[in-house]
Specification:
The protein has 706 residues and is an alpha+beta fold. Helices cover 34% and strands 25% of the residues. Strands 2, 3, 4, 5, 8, 19 and 20 form a 7-stranded mixed β-sheet that branches. It has a 6-stranded antiparallel β-sheet with strand order 11-10-9-24-23-22, sandwiched between helices.
Length: 706
Amino acid sequence: MDIKKDILWRVHLCFLGIIVLGVIVLGRAIYIQRVQGQYWKSMSNKQHLKYIDIDAERGSIYSEDGNMLSTSIPVFDIYVDFAADGLREKEGKRFYHNLDSLSFSLANLFKDGSKAFYRKLLLSAYKKRARYFPLKKKISFEQYQALRDFPLVRQGRNKSGFIVDVRDNRVNPYVLLANRTIGLSRGDTSRNVGLERSYDSVLRGETGQRLVRYMAGAYVPVDGAEIEPENGKDIITTINTYIQDVAENALLKMMEENNSLQGTCIVMEVKTGKIKAIANLGRRPDGEYLEDYNYGVGKKSEPGSVFKLATLLSLLEDKYVDTGSIVDCEGGQKNFYGLTIKDSHLGTGLLTVKEAFARSSNVAFAKLADMYYHNQPEKFYQHLDHLRLDKKSGIDIVGAATPYIKKPSSKYWAKTTIPFMAHGYEELVTPLNLLMLYNAVANDGKMMKPYLVNSINEMGVPVESFKPEVLVDKICSDETLGKLKACLLAVVENEHGTGHALKNNLYEFGGKTGTAVTAMDNRGYNKGDKIYQSAFIGFIPFNNPQYSIAVVIQNGKESRLAYGGVVAGPVFKEVADRLYASKIAKESINQFETNGDSSLYKFYGMKSDLNNILDVFKYKEIGNDGKGDWGTTILQDGRAQLFADNVTAGKDKIPDVKGLGLKDAVYLLENMGLKVMVSGKGKVIYQSIAQNSEFNKGQSIKIQLN
């Protein structure tokens, strides 16, 4: 019994001990959590380590002519660890000894506070033992260089407590120049635009890592614990800074003069599809114009009469009309299924198709399209589809819009659709898509894919290059092409052409004006004041096209001018003139002095004939290279120069007869055994077999005269 009591006593004692111990543990846990919780959390944070990303140095973007369009420059954030051992040893002797001189130097460098201000700021942070005190952010490299030599700072990080964090800041040295196309680079890459977004993965490189410790409310880098980032690659664009500057300024000048709302000017290289310039301007509420949106690529609208080229191509290709066919414009006004279509100038009657195109008769093209495609609309749509007017341009930039071409199967298709589509309504197309069509006509029917980047470079060496790409081998037959070119030339050369005011005697060019009434703010087309969109699209020079240019400007209620020929046309002409003078004209032409009303004329032919003409008219000859039987003469201000023009490529190769008169062209081709088929009058503007091509005796060659 005594043994039993003894055992029970011991069990009860142990049980009581366990209860007491549990109460103590529980109480201690509550005490630590409730009373000492903040202390232990801060201790945990002080010891907390983690890796953070280090952004690589972003690659630069260059123009084709070697100018920097976008780059990263380093900016420096300066922090101070006022708890650094070296700064606080010997009761802060080093800090107090340098405090005044450091404050004086900082005040002189940043000029945003006095010496007393900086002394108070530093002293306050020192007394609080601030571990990662932000002294100054985003200082330049020059300021950083000066700071390194300041008192205390020059003693190094361990003794001074100064910490430098280097970051990249993206800048566009040319500011406005192609700003929307080159793009913007922000911290959040999903908000980037332009090439900065399209080629972000190439430009940004490979991210590195840095070990940091949480100290006093901020993460402080741990020395020697970094994985270096791999810098981004550079991009070489197709943009030419001179052409871009010309396009920007010409567009800006017209938009300011006319109080226009937004506009774009695109310059494309005919043979390659390279975009040499793309200017985009929009008016801000304060009246200033900025590159706020890529209107040339991302904005689609009803194009107006510049779309008539597609209609004309369809009609010619299907052999429904010829450029000499007669169409009755019915006074410039006609009712189509209850809706009236008018010409901008009433009163026109019988015209050839070529004249109707030159005068931009809405009635003529609505009437012809309705006559031949009303019962077979799918055939008209197939032409537009073949011309890729319903597809994205394919340009290498994010944000390109998809055009909208109404299909015959659409529930919105109506009897009036064909006549309205024919003259540029009831479809939504971007300026770039239309430029691709005009460029294809200039490029002998070959439609090129537009592109903005030539190559991706690493350390100056190309690692990937981009070449011209053909989207459509042939948009139409050679015969149709020749007629289209002649009609585009007539817009400028014909005295009644809508672009005749743009004509000059130095060089010829083809193009088309366009004026469209636009529906803005959901007000419809005819409610209140009409809002007009003006356009001019064409190529230069006519005989050997090098550049195609599109100008599209959206006017506002305050704009005093509306028609394409007087709004977009002058922008086209200014860009074209500068391109011709700087990029196209031959060196010999520069010998002539030019003045306000001087005229320059250029003729092709046999040198013997040209010499006889010069002798009869007593032109003073200033040069003759004496090579070959054929050549070119340039006349101006009573002077002349003759030089060889390689019309002949050898007895076994097709010569270049563009620019020759009919007599000389036929003489040259028939003497080589070719059968010549001729259409038109004037000078040769198109030949069906390209220069330098091989041929067989008796082979047919078609030539189109303007």
